[in-house]
Amino acid sequence: MSQDGIVLVASVSIFSDDKVLIIKENKPTAINKWNFPSGRIEYGEDILYAARREVKEETGLEVKLIGTTGVYNFISNTNDQVILFHFIGEGTGGSLNLAEGEVSDSKWINVNELVTFENQDLREPSVIKQIVDNLLKENIHSISLYNKQLIK
């Protein structure tokens, strides 16, 4: 969702065993940049639903959200103010099937390996590094912080 240059984004670190899934984006604003599956929250859409939808669209995987590392507020490389809600998920179904045209690659890696990536290889490197730092320090919060959306 975008309003007056503010973009709301849901992002998910999907874990399987001790590995996390990262994807290489192939979008006009992020060509060959590694990121967690993520995307814009649509108008009227529940944040938790948006996170699961984006994972499914980009990776083909279904996830259960089990925690959050928090909310990140930053100015993007496209000069939008981004409010990013980052979640932790575990796979519950589906199979890895990358969104054609949007995602060019994926890999399962240890979280600490993300620290070694060069900034130019990451989408919004300062934000990803904050998320990784929270994951490594286990600064994880309950998903119950997010209340059910009330739509009139």
Automatic annotation (TrEMBL):
The keyword Hydrolase applies. InterPro entries: Nudix_hydrolase, NUDIX_hydrolase-like_dom_sf, NUDIX_hydrolase_CS, NUDIX_hydrolase_dom. GO terms for molecular function: hydrolase activity. PROSITE patterns: NUDIX, NUDIX_BOX. CDD domains: NUDIX_Hydrolase (cd02883). Residues 5-132 form the Nudix hydrolase domain. This is DNA mismatch repair protein MutT. It comes from Sutcliffiella cohnii.
